[in-house]
Amino acid sequence: MVLSHVAEREGKLLTFLRGELALSSGLVKRLKWQNVFFLDGVPVHTDARVLPGQKITVKIEEAPEGFLPQTLPIDILYEDESLIALDKPAGQLVHPSPRKNDGTLANALLGYYAETNQPCGIHPVTRLDRDTFGVVLLAKNAHIHAKLCQMMKDGQIHKTYLAAVYGCPKERAGEISLPIYKIGNGSLLRIVDPRGKRAVSRYRVLQTDGITSVLALTPVTGRTHQLRLHCKMAGFPILGDPQYASPASMLFSCARGLFTQQLCAAKLELPHPVTGQPLIISTRKAVSTGDEQLHFDALLAQHDARVV
User: Is 129 in the active site?
Assistant: First the structure.
């Protein structure tokens, strides 16, 4: 990736890198010893003096990944030169781990980049549990990744999930605010505990038959397993969830062949990190109650029509 800018003022190169070129401080620190900053084609350091009319160039090369590309199916929902959004299936890790270094979404994407001759890196912005499915957003380079991560911290990236649950909330819409605490001792599981971090989730009931319901979920905070644990503790566990189930929801799920959580990252809304234009990226996948497949867009349209 090459970034360039013609200076309209005088100042230190560092101020242009952080200002006009919008590089994060972490990325600048990482690049400063790699000879990637140029002034009128000459390599310079971050303390170089820049005069009006001089051209600043930054050449960012992606470091080799610690895993191999693979030719695997990927479902692309959106792609441009800065970012890519994929529709992840249930059962697939987003990124390799010490225990599994192949077959992941990252392996497949690296293979796609190799096949399409794109010198891009793997920079996940949103992550999903292995068995949660739907939209995953990745940046194609470290610069865009830093910008998107900052946008996430600033609340500019809005996520909506779709969940099929056992039971039905008493209210058609509401908020769950329960602190989440990591158990520890090597376990990935979380519990609700006063020692935990603040966690807030919002929900809307899109459909219910009195036994199961389909909810639109919005995580206000982003704790691990937040939506799964909140739904369980609020009295409507997600169908098929093997870790955060009630005895009744487990029996219901097993009887209908639901053995992975019916939780889908349904929609991402954000301004484009370069152009600022609004992006809305939706999944093509559906959750299941065991009796029917339910798609987010159709459910949302039906719900909004009823509300009107």
Answer: yes
